[in-house]
Structures are given as C-alpha cells and as structure tokens.
Design goal:
Two copies of one chain form a homodimer.
Chain A: E1 15-16, H1 26-32, H2 42-59, E2 65-69, H3 73-84, E3 90-95, H4 98-109, E4 113-118, H5 127-136, E5 141-145, E6 147-148, E7 153-154, H6 158-166, E8 170-174, H7 186-189, E9 193-195, E10 209-213, H8 215-222, H9 235-242, H10 254-270, H11 272-292, E11 296-297, E12 308-312, H12 319-330, E13 332-333, E14 335-336, E15 345-349, H13 357-373, H14 380-408
Parallel strand pairs in A: 1-13, 3-4, 3-5, 5-8, 8-9
Antiparallel strand pairs in A: 2-10, 6-7, 9-10, 11-12, 12-15, 14-15
Helix pairs in contact in A: 1-10, 2-10, 11-13, 11-14, 12-13, 13-14
Chain lengths: ~400, ~400
C-alpha cells in the first residue's frame, strides 16, 4: 500500500451562487445525518410515499408516475430519453443551449431518428420553426428545455405545448434549473416526461433526479418493442419499487431521500406561489443591481430565467482570475459560462435556499470589488440603491424573517 | 394543491444487519453534513483526487481508472457491462445467484451474444464448467460475482483468473458485498472491470458505486465501434471529469463524496488486513453462535462470505412475521432471501462498521427469542458460549476499544 497522508480535506464554507449545487437549508443538513435505514423498512417506504405525494404538485402533475431517479439530473434526462425512444423513432430535438444538445446526444445513443432545431444561445426556441418541422414530418417526440442552464433562458411553453397537441407528438421537458423555483404545469402543457435535479431550486445536495411520466408515457414504456437500453433507468423496473409492488430494484438512498423529503416539506410550508414570487423578486433585484453597476444581461428581459442569471463579462476582464478572486476573498462561488459561452458570461444562481435578499445584497459589492481589482470601475452605491429599491421594505423584512426561522430551526 | 399532512416522518434508529445498507460510523455522519460545495471548486477536486488515491488499494489496483460512479451499485454494474460490451460481442456470464443473472440482463440490453453458465444458488461457479465453455468458443468477456449478495457465496478466484488469462478473455467482477471487507486483487486476478457499492463494507450510505477499469479496459472503451448505450455511464465522458481534464459531465455530489472519503480514511487508518481479519473473526463468531443454536448455514464452510451470512430458516417459521418481530422489538433489521431463496434463508450482514462483536452478541439472543415466540426452542446459553469462545478475550477487547474510539470521535 502506498504511503498516505491521512488528513481529511477540511470542508470549506462557501456561498454558492452558481448554476448548482446551491446552499441548502439547515433542516436539510439535519435530515442528511438522520440514521441510515433499509430500503424495504416499512418506515422508509412511507418516506418514499410522502415524496410521491409532495413532488407531483411541484411538477403540476396529477396521475402518471412521479418520484426521484437514483442519480443526478443527467440520469433523469437519460431516463426520460431512453424510456420514451426506441431505435428508429423520429424525435425533434429543440436545442437552444448545451443541455438541449445533451438530449440530442442521448437520443442518438438510442439510435432514434434525430432532427435538431438549433437556436442561438441566449434565445429560446422559436415555435414557428418547430411548426415548420412538424409540417414536414410526423414526430413521436419533441424535446425541449424549459430552463436552459447554460444560457439562462426561460422557454415560453404555451405555443410549444399547443403544437405538440396539434401535431400529436409527445413532449419531453428539461426543468433542471426551474423545478421548485418557477411554476411548472406538466399536465396543462401535456408534458409526457419531465425531469429535474435535487440540488437547485428543490434545495438538497446533488444525487437525485425528480422525474415525472404521464399516463400516456407509462403506456408507451409498457408497450415498447425493444427493452430500454439502460437497465438502471428502466421505468418499468423502477416503478415496481416506487409503487405498491415494492419489488427490489436498487438500494434507495435513505440519506438523499430523507433530505429530499425535508426539502419538499420546506417547499410546501412556504407555498408554491410564495416560493415562485421570492425567486422572481430576488432575480429582479439582482438584475437591477447588476444593470445599475453598468453590466449587461445576456438574455432579453422576457426570456430571463428568474433562477439563473447570465451576466455578460465586460471586455478586458479575466474571467478565471475574477472568479478565483471571489472564491478566495469572498468565499463566493459563481458559475462561468461553458460551451460557446465560455469566458463570455457569468452564471449567477438564485435558487432554492440561495434565492435570498442577502445573497443579492452580498453579490453586488463583491462583484463590484472584483471588477475594480481588474481596473473596471462601477458605481457601487447606484448598484446597491437599485437592489434596495427593488427589494423594498418587504424584501428586507422577508429576509429578516427567514433569518429568524433559520435561527429557530 | 391537495391537502397535505406536513409532518416529517421521524427517522427511526435501527441496528442494520441485513444485506445493506449497514450502519455507518459517526465520522461518516459528520462528513454527510459538511457544507455543500461546487463540483469544480478547487478544494472539492482535491477530495475527488484523494478518493482516486485511496480507493485503488482497496481494489488491489495500480494503473487504470478508479473512482465512484454517481449511482448505486447497479449503476456500477451497468457501467462495467455497457462500457465493455458492444452488440454482437460474445460474453460468458457465470450466474450462481440473483446478481449474476442481473449482469446477464444488462448484457442482453447491449445486444451482446450472451452465454450463461448457471450454478445452484448456494454454490459458486465451477471453473471446470467455465473451461468447458471456453473450449467451445472464443469469448470477449467473462463476468462473475465475487460475493453473491443473494446467496452468501464467496467465489474462489484463482482458477477463474487463470482461465481468463489462458483463453484471453477479459474479466468483469461484482464485488458489491466484498469490497472493503475481503481482500480483492484485481491486478493479480487480471480483472478488467470491477464495481461495488458504497453502503456495505465501504461504510457510507447508498448512492455511489466504486468502480475500477484496467488499462486494457480503458483502451477497449476508447476503441469501441459504437457509442456506449448509456451517456450517463460512459467511461470516456466521465473519466474526463475524474481526470486532469476536469470537463463537466455530471454534478458530482459533494455530500456523498465527502462521506466516501471519510469512510476510505477509516479503512486506511484501520489497515486493510486488520479490517479483513475483523470481518472474518466476527463472521466465525456469528456462525459458531448460529450453529450452536441449532440453526444451519446455507453455504458450505469453504465458500462462505465472511460479510454476508445466509442462515437457513427452520421449518415451521413464518419468515415475514419473524423479521417484523425483530424490527419491532429489537429494532434489528436483517434481510430475507429473494428470488428462489425467498422464504428459505435470512441474510445477516456483518459489513463495514456493522461487522462488530457487539452486533454478533446482540443477534444471538434476539434471533433465539424471535424463534421461541414462534415455538422453536434453541439453546441460548450454548449459542452465546460459542460466540464468546470464538471472539475470545481479544475480540471483546477490540469491541471495547472500538467503543472508546467512537466515544472520542
């Protein structure tokens, strides 16, 4: 055995304001250290049942199958794609960012017949383009990204939903950066498979992927001609564990699911509409501050995600150096751009527990200082003033009330 | 939104002595509540590097690629199968239990050309049968289960390893119930892909799957003709995140990996050989006690797993009722049999932190009482006497020393 330095790396405290993971509520940390329990323990099965009750309203789902896949958001993405598609199935992939393209890659691994509509990164998919494609050919499935984590774009869903219905295509939706922070209405939109992750607006550490399938999707999976290419992500196997049959499939992680249950309880205690308002309000305050500092947002106002803000990096700024400075001096972790936006934007997350007035108020001086270090001057007092005006008295009160709640937890 | 009862299900305390998950060390619980951190944070990348250093010796690996897949043990199984096999590849699946058969199912989903050798449940695979198959046909891959979780059988590896070399086949090994509790020598055995889980002898909650690929396996994956059917489990993508490139693949769970690092430090502090001895000693004590009570083990002595003990259920005993009694009265969770051993055996795990003298000493009176309730009398004093004789003075001292360590943690 090699000689080993046995010291554990100390876990540092960060303020997480990137694309995820985000900070989690103290009650979620408590849940994480709950005693481990067996995956067939009657008490634990009730925990899974509670998750199965509390999660559907967050998706806007009644009926179908809803629970959390045992992996990160990408496992949920692959579960959705691999269960719905068989070799040769025609699928229309709407890609207006990195994650739309990831769906394409997964669909190709199913040997589906893939057509891609690409939109500019920073814009949503244009429904007219979708309709043009649907007129040309019959598609089994349309895939689209509700909240594109690489660009900060929110996809308006009404037209896409109408088209899917009109042309009788199924709909697959990525809500990785929106579920729990923005209203999702899978029933109203006719979404057949929709997945997310645990570490963003839901508010737990990474490791689970909330997912929902419509009754129609469940039927499609039941009647497949070929086996799902992934045993691990096969809905027809895993739903026998989630459902009343309780047939062993994988060893469900009580640690992660206790945390998920606690996070869902926090969501329902807060109230969905109140939670969405909080995300929107803090987003508006952040944008006001950022723009008052003289910085620009990547996305047009009507398509901005309230959960993930993409800020254009001013010319002459060294991106990596600036983010390292924020991490070292302020313990503040924001995200860089990636793919074709690498070095061009920062991604500032305000999701779940991290969507708070005090995070916005912390970010403005920190970024102002970090820019100044590289010679770019901003008007900090204008920035803070804009934030405070947006937050107004209520915003500050809400932050204070939240702080009290935490103290009492 | 439906009306919800918002009370969180209280997490009960169990003594976990089933097939897993098992109890975890207090230091691992502490690690679980470490502050969440970003998957690209320089400190967190060091955590992943430390895991990449500490895990290979547990597998007996130098070279290749070793880390933990972001899913349960079955995700590691599928990663091993899906990366090494392409459609049409001839694979010899040795199935002497439920999990050997699961490998077969996964291989079929790759459309590999699958040949199965089935052995009786409770026996290992016979190398002569393997050789007979290898003489008939050339195989790309042999798959076998080192520690069959469904039967409690330990597969002797020397002959299988020799045959794989002799007939130039790759080797895939399931060590889900052995890694960290029994010596694994993947380099010596010429194992190309070997996977396990986090919640058994390694000693963390479920959610990760330690896995190792040989240099030869890495080459095979690089030179595949077709894409790996699972994007999520594609080694060529995930190793770009594990390795020096640090290309984003999935959002690695700092919570689970902090816990894994802590568990690996515990393993290396204890010493591998000392750890294997502890597992063996407690197993011997349990078997002595069980047999002195008049119960029978399923597996012949030379093939018994020291980590998972399969005890034959005496005639006239209601299995479910007995296990429910243990859970209700003793908070003791042991496993039932499944597949063709359902209702025929109990599976008593002594793995990782749960492999302790005090668990053995607790189990004997508990099972004796549970049998008595159903009218089966056992000689409890003979049972305990046998355990104490096996443990001898050193065993008890070790348990006491361990208890002191925990108190000091």
């Amino acid at each position: 055995m090699p000689e080993l330095n046995l010291q554990r790396q100390e876990a540092p405290l960060r303020r997480l304001m990137g694309p995820g993971p985000l900070d989690v509520h103290p009650r979620v940390y408590k849940a994480l250290s709950s005693p481990v329990i067996g995956y067939m323990d009657p008490v634990y099965l009730k925990v899974l049942d509670r998750i199965g009750e509390l999660l559907p309203p967050v998706f806007g789902r009644t009926g179908g199958i809803t629970n959390a896949m045992p992996g990160t958001g990408s496992s949920g993405m692959e579960a959705a794609v691999a269960n719905l598609l068989e070799p040769g199935d025609p699928v229309l992939v709407c890609a207006h960012g990195y994650f739309g393209d990831r769906v394409r890659q997964m669909a190709e691994r199913q040997e589906a017949e893939v057509t891609v509509i690409e939109a500019e990164w920073g814009k949503p998919t244009d429904p007219q383009q979708v309709e043009a494609e649907l007129k040309k050919k019959s598609y089994k499935l349309i895939t689209i990204v509700h909240a594109e984590t690489s660009t900060g774009v929110l996809q308006p869903m009404d037209d896409i939903a109408r088209l899917a219905r009109e042309y009788d295509a199924m709909l697959l939706l990525d809500t990785v950066s929106s579920l729990g922070g923005i209203e999702i209405k899978v029933d109203d939109w006719g979404v057949d498979a929709c997945f997310s992750c645990s570490q963003k607006c839901i508010g737990t550490p990474p490791g689970l992927s909330p997912i929902t399938f419509s009754d129609r999707a469940v039927e499609i999976v039941k009647n497949r001609k070929s086996a799902v290419r992934s045993w691990y992500l096969d809905l027809s196997l895993i739903e026998k564990y989630w459902g009343a049959d309780r047939v062993y499939h994988h060893t469900s992680s009580s640690t992660l699911n206790y945390a998920l249950l606690e996070a869902l309880l926090l969501i329902h205690e807060e109230g969905l509409q109140e939670r969405f308002s909080r995300h929107y309000k803090n987003h508006k305050a952040l944008v006001a501050g950022v723009e008052a500092l003289g910085l620009k947002m990547l996305v047009d106002p009507q398509y901005r995600l309230p959960t993930l803000n993409t800020v254009v990096i001013p010319e002459g700024i060294d991106d990596l150096k600036l983010r390292r400075y924020l991490l070292d001096k302020f313990k503040l972790d924001i995200g860089g751009g990636f793919g074709r936006l690498a070095g061009k934007v920062w991604r500032v997350g305000l999701m779940g527990y991290s969507s708070s007035a005090d995070n916005v108020l912390f970010f403005i001086p920190a970024i102002s200082r970090a820019l100044a270090v590289q010679g770019v001057k901003t008007d900090l007092s204008a920035g803070l003033d804009a934030v405070l005006t947006e937050l107004d008295g209520n915003g500050i009160d809400a932050a204070a009330a939240e702080a009290q709640k935490i103290a009492a937890a």
